[in-house]
Amino acid sequence: MFDEEEEEPLAAIPPHDRPRERLRRLGPGVLTDEEILALVLGTGQPGRSVLATARSILRQTGGFSGLAAMDVTRLERLPGIGPAMAGRLTATLEIWRRAGTTSAWSPLVDDDATSRIVVPELAHRSTERFVVIVADRALRPLEVVFVRDGGDTPVQVEPSEVLQAVLTRGGRSFAVAHNHPNGTLEASVADMAITRRLGAGAATIGLRFLGHILVAGADWRRL
């Protein structure tokens, strides 16, 4: 539920001090988190300004890091966010993630290189997610592809889903990763089984399987 603290209506703020005008006049670096989020949201809720809506969302999620860890379904459940707004936020966060990582990717010559891609992607998620890093013959990453979410249960993936994702994107090599939201780096029987099956499946169609990374918070291990 929204907090009931007193708020200043956006209309009561002098025009030159409103988020959009401050952005144009001073640049994005001077904006507060709630002002940035307010610009993304565009509108508030009935009886609440967009700034108050943004402030409440940030309090509920613990800031941008918590917001970035939420998938679109969980965002839709937050008071003040419907399907359209949840979709807009998810797309905006994905732009930020891609812009901040793609240019920094290095060839997948070892597990450290793979971890530098997948740990930021998976470390703060509250549910399990399985991704594949598609790479070319020279091990240069082409794309990180979301394969499947586990929801409230461990993620279940078939090798065919992963191999198809690699082939349809022109990949010649690939690595996979998933996270354990409970913070444990202990691999399950299913984790080890999918790793073996992916290795065998890749070999039969001429793809190079580079390994499986398990992420738990900021920690990781190879399976």
What does this protein structure show overall?
Residues 1-22 are annotated as: Disordered. Belongs to the UPF0758 family. This is DNA repair protein. One of its GO terms (molecular function) is metallopeptidase activity. By secondary structure, the chain is of the alpha+beta class. The protein folds into two domains: 19-100, DNA polymerase, domain 1, CATH 1.10.150; 111-222, 3-Layer(aba) Sandwich (Cytidine Deaminase, domain 2), CATH 3.40.140. The chain has nine helices and five strands. A hairpin with a 5-residue loop joins strand 1 and strand 2. The chain is elongated, with a radius of gyration of 21 Å. The model is unreliable at 1-6 (pLDDT under 50).
Keywords:
alpha+beta, five-stranded mixed β-sheet, 223 residues, DNA polymerase, domain 1, 43% helix, Cytidine Deaminase, domain 2, single chain, 5 strands
Number of strands: 5
Strand content: 15-25%
Distance between the termini: 42 Å
Q: What class, by secondary structure content?
A: alpha+beta
**Count of spatially separate domains:** 2
Low-confidence segments: 1-6
Strands of the widest sheet, in order across it, are 2-1-3-4-5
Structural Rg: 21 Å
Biggest sheet architecture: 5 strands, mixed
How are helices and strands ordered from N to C? HHHHHHHEEHEHEE
- The CATH topology of the largest domain, please? Cytidine Deaminase, domain 2
* Name given to the CATH homologous superfamily of the largest domain: Cytidine Deaminase, domain 2
CATH architecture of the largest domain: 3-Layer(aba) Sandwich
Mean pLDDT, all residues: 85
Spatial shape: elongated
Proportion in helices: 40-55%
Number of helices: 9
In the CATH hierarchy, what is the class of the largest domain? Alpha Beta
